[in-house]
């Protein structure tokens, strides 16, 4: 009873209700909330603290940024879910908040895309700065195995290396990216590799241009840490996966290299296993494997790379 009352009190106020509703759209930082709500940081932090103490939201610090997300379990999680579902459609305040959230996300993703467009030529060099690529690719091949793949999709394909890696065992292979500059390089790479059945396609990973339940293997190599909303990205992956279909995620393990936010547009300083498990579970995927590869001892500033395999439950072939 006490926890329920504390939860209800914590959301029974205009700004906190707005915060709750905003967080149903994915994780946000305190700074982003202050921009959307147009209130001072101390004021927003006070509301956030109250909601966190009542168990409505969780805060976690990652370098200089504090991320916020809704708690999903227990009575407070139930309150958050219930309230977010009964916000009246067309409420003007909520609509305006969502518009500002959209603008902030557009601005950030435009900056990230500009970074990729500008760095497309050097990307192959930048991507090899951490664990030796040969090790990562060996682990990826091992996890995927050598079975035939009907439909492969490499999301955020960049210069197309992962597409090149798995296209030979796929009937159809598509590399999708939002950066034209990156895609130009990937296209050339596929031509040079003689992988004529592999296509590169311009598109948004939040709206994959594939029918539901049609893809056997999705690869997402070094993409999630750039995204504003990895949970939604994985939900979209789960939509297109066939029953029994798999997604191979490769990304950095948690690290403290704050400069990567400023210089290379990273949003997350690596990704925890628990985080991947939570996002996957929210998307209806089951993580079946996790491993980490550490940088060579002499590689200064090198980051640990983690691999996860997740599966869409169901029997293969049941489309
Ligand atoms: C760090 S690169 C990784 C490229 C490639 N997977 C690799 O490992 O070399 C991230 C890629 O994700 C793409 N990207 C970012 N946001 C995207 C979006 N919303 N839709 C599609 N591609 C996106 C970027 O353009 C960029 O090429």
Quick rundown:
This protein is of the alpha/beta class and 319 residues long.
What is this structure's SSE topology?
Blueprint: H1 2-11, H2 14-23, E1 28-29, H3 30-37, H4 41-53, E2 57-62, E3 65-70, H5 74-86, H6 92-119, H7 123-126, H8 133-144, E4 149-155, H9 161-166, E5 170-177, H10 180-192, E6 198-202, E7 215-221, H11 230-240, E8 241-252, H12 259-264, H13 273-283, E9 286-293, E10 305-311
Parallel strand pairs: 4-5, 4-7, 5-6, 7-8
Antiparallel strand pairs: 1-3, 2-3, 8-10, 9-10
Helix pairs in contact: 1-5, 3-4, 3-6, 11-13
What does this structure look like?
The chain is an alpha/beta fold. The protein has two domains: 2-118, Orthogonal Bundle (Arc Repressor Mutant, subunit A); 123-311, Rossmann fold (3-Layer(aba) Sandwich). Helix content is 45%, strand content 21%. The chain has helices spanning 2-11, 14-23, 30-37, 41-53, 74-86, 92-119, 123-126, 133-144, 161-166, 180-192, 230-240, 259-264, 273-283; strands at 28-29, 57-62, 65-70, 149-155, 170-177, 198-202, 215-221, 241-252, 286-293, 305-311. It has a seven-stranded mixed beta sheet with strand order 6-5-4-7-8-10-9, with helices on both faces. α1 packs parallel to α5 (74-86) and α11 (230-240) crosses α13 (273-283). The longest helix has 28 residues, at 92-119. The radius of gyration is 21 Å and the shape is globular. It starts with a helix and ends in an 8-residue tail after the last strand. The mean pLDDT is 91.
């Amino acid at each position: 009873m006490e926890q329920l009352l504390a939860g209800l009190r914590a959301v029974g106020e205009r700004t906190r209700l707005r915060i709750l509703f905003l967080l149903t759209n994915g994780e946000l930082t305190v700074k982003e909330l202050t921009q959307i709500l147009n209130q001072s940081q101390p004021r927003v932090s006070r509301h956030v603290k109250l909601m966190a103490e009542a168990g409505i939201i969780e805060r976690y610090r990652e370098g200089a940024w504090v991320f916020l997300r809704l708690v999903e379990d227990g009575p407070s999680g139930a309150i958050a879910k219930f309230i977010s579902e009964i916000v009246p459609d067309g409420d003007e305040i909520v609509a305006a908040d969502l518009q500002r959230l959209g603008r902030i996300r557009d601005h950030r993703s435009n900056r990230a895309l500009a970074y990729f467009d500008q760095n497309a030529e050097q990307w192959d060099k930048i991507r090899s700065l951490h664990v030796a690529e040969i090790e990562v690719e060996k682990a990826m091949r091992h996890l995927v195995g050598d079975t035939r793949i009907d439909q492969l999709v490499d999301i955020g394909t960049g210069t197309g290396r992962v597409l090149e890696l798995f296209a030979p065992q796929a009937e159809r292979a598509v590399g999708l990216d939002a950066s034209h500059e990156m895609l130009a390089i990937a296209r050339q790479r596929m031509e040079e590799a003689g992988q004529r059945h592999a296509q590169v396609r311009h598109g948004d990973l939040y709206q994959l241009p594939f029918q539901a339940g049609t893809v056997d293997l999705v690869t997402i190599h070094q993409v999630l840490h750039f995204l504003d909303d990895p949970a939604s990205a994985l939900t979209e992956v789960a939509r297109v996966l066939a029953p029994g279909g798999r997604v191979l995620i490769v990304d950095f393990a948690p690290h403290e290299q704050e400069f990567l936010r400023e210089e290379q547009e990273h949003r997350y300083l690596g990704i925890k296993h628990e985080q991947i498990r939570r996002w996957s579970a929210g998307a209806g995927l089951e993580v079946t494997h996790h491993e980490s590869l550490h940088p060579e001892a002499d590689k200064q500033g090198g980051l640990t790379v983690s691999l996860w395999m997740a599966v869409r439950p169901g029997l293969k072939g049941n489309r």
